[in-house]
Structures are given as C-alpha cells and as structure tokens.
Design a protein that fits this description.
By secondary structure, this protein is mainly beta. The chain has strands spanning about 1-10, 10-15, 20-25, 35, 40-45, 45-50, 60-80, 85-104. The protein has no helices and eight strands.
C-alpha cells in the first residue's frame, strides 16, 4: 500500500492515490491541476522515507474537484444583566481535491 503524509494550510493529511479529500480553500479553478511540495512521509509497501522535516524531491500531484462553502456555524456572545446579545455566522471555504500521483 502506497500512501503519504502531506502538510497544507497548517494541517496534515494522510493521502493515497485516487483518493478525494476535503481541505481548506486553495487557489485554482475546477479541474485545474497542482502540486504539493511539502511531503512529510512516504510509505511504499516496505520502503519508508521520513522527512527532516520534509522528504527531498517528493511531491503529490492533485486535481481540484470542487470549490464550495461549508455548513454555517452560529456563534453567540452574551453578557448577563446588561442586555448584550450578539449572534454571528461563519461558513468555511473548502476545496475537494483528488490525489493523482505520489512522486518520490
């Protein structure tokens, strides 16, 4: 089994080829391709390459499948005895990417 640990937008993900994952928004149009250079670990059956902090000459190729907004989250502030109430919403910007190839 071949997989890699990548770091993007301050988060680490375990990815395999032909897998679709949801990450924070990255720039690009739908069906455009890109490359992630920050690969922390690569496992290919018995071969293991560990980065220090990143594996040299390794990359993960991806294709953007979808750009969309996540579910709305309600946030409320409240102070007792002062009639202060405030409600606001937040929707995260997300991107679905398909892992095409793990290079090393």
């Amino acid at each position: 089994m071949k997989y890699a640990i990548i770091a993007t937008s301050g988060t680490q993900y375990k990815v395999e080829e032909n897998q679709i994952i949801t990450i924070d928004k990255i720039e690009g149009e739908k069906d455009s391709k890109g490359k992630i250079e920050s690969v922390l670990l690569i496992v290919d059956d018995d071969k293991i390459k560990i980065g220090n902090p990143e594996v040299k000459d390794a990359s993960v190729e991806y294709q953007i499948v979808n750009q969309y907004q996540g579910e709305k989250i309600r946030v409320s502030k409240f102070k007792a005895k002062s009639r202060y109430r405030k409600t606001m919403g937040f929707r995260s910007q997300l991107t679905d990417i398909k892992i095409l190839k793990i290079n090393f």
